[in-house]
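Slide 14.
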Amino acid sequence: MLDISPATKIDTALAKLEKVFASGDIDAAVNLFQADCYWRDLVTFTWNLKTLEGHEQIRDMLTSQLAAIKPSNFVQDSKEAASEAGGVTEGWFEFETDVARGYGHIRLKEGLIWTLLTTMTELKGHEEPKGFRRPMGAEHGHDRNRRTWKEKQETEAAELGYTIQPYVVIVGGGQGGIALGARLRQLGVPTIIIEKNQRPGDSWRKRYKSLCLHDPVWYDHLPYIPFPENWPVFTPKDKVGDWLEMYTRVMELNYWGSTTAKSAQYDEATGEWTVVVERDGKEVVLKPKQLVLATGMSGKANVPKFEGQDIFKGEQQHSSQHPGPDAYAGRQVVVIGSNNSAHDICAALWEAGADVTMLQRSSTHIVKSDSLMEIGLGDLYSERAVQSGMTTRKADLIFASLPYRIMHEFQIPIYNKIREQDADFYQALEKAGFMLDFGDDDSGLFMKYLRRGSGYYIDVGACDLVIDGSIKLKSGVDVSHLTENAVVLKDGTELPADLIVYATGYGSMNGWAADLISREVADKVGKCWGLGSNTTKDPGPWEGEQRNMWKPTRQEALWFHGGNLHQSRHYSQYLSLQLKARQAGIDTPVYGLIEPHHLS
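Slide 15: predicted structure.
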């Protein structure tokens, strides 16, 4: 029997897909998939971000969408070699729908589709002006009415939001809003970004001085302009801020700094928002068709309520307001929390000479930065990966191709290896009294982040201070109350304090919607973030995608955008295409809009 190459297997599978889609034979299409199968679609088939699990879900989606979507021209990507390992054949392909071009990834087992990823790359007739379509810039020839690039920019800045209305208003000018604004600019969608801080990047500059990115540079590129090859692996916060400010100017974004969004109301009859903002001390009324809340993956600061907070004579701060350690040398500080911010703040306070105690109320996942880079990220986001030919786009798509339902199965071996490699480190932490976990199913950092966005620390040095007692640790007990000068725990322990830092995280993003729009709209949308995995702080039911993120919500024309730099980069593409399609009047039949769950 002749051996069939991986490329031939992929070609055969794609040809079968093409045939059944063209004929409209949905049963035949479903039978191309294994019984245990997953199809993750990013906009192309569903105008949604949706993962279909099993035959029945795929059949239901195709019954709803196939006739309108008209998929065709499934062709293996000749620049990406198909591969085979462990009985799984993998390949990349291009395809089209009636209105868009797409790119995908496929995994086969025994000739049947196990996982399928389909993503939208561009809308036909609305392609980005790049390559042969790039703008000329200079206008050659002669024209007495010629306007320079600068004059055009100044005119646009003066008119947009006043005499000309934006199609999209983005509330939040951090990396999420900036990345999305850049995508929309390239698609010709008039957009204003609203930011309460004065300058792009101030949301980073105003944090505690030791803050830096815990993700490595290869994971954190923004769209269109990657970091230079000599950029540091871990970017300090002020350098991040400067990059965002530079990026905003170079990408020609309409960025309204020192502007506060005061209210927003949607008119169902006109399909239009009324967004009231205060800019430079004056009220401005904007009338966009689409409103995006890009306030980070987190919502409002979560400050716990304890008896005695009103009588405590020292300072109390949420970690987001903590200015840094300089004023607290020689003073007693209690940091409530044990995740990233708590560790960073404790370490900086110790360096400044403060007497600092970390109060750990529940277990925390710890992974050493070096181990995460080597074992967790190295194949996709590292210099090693770059040298082997890995691109940012390909790495993003490989990560996206793993359905959330089974992603933990790929993560557990990684964290088992890390736990074995760093056994002495974990033993020392536990000996110091630190409560460790690796997630509910031992799947580690990424699943914790995707499920709940909290409960972990990427160790860049603070753990050594916990281990040797430089950072005092009190774990496994909660706060009873505060006195005038101490935090009193439920076991009777008193922790004297001049400063209490609440490193207690954030609520759901729909909390911003409640404040800006209404509680009714926030409840109509439901909680943002989380997969519905029924693990700690991620209650079911199972969604299979991040709740309400980067996709249509139950509130017409309201969108949520956020996450880390990787997610801001990757998912801004799909959100921008959804917004552009609506601006262009393209029919966008949304399949599988989620039901709201867990109102906050």
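Speaker note: The chain is about 30% helix and 20% strand.
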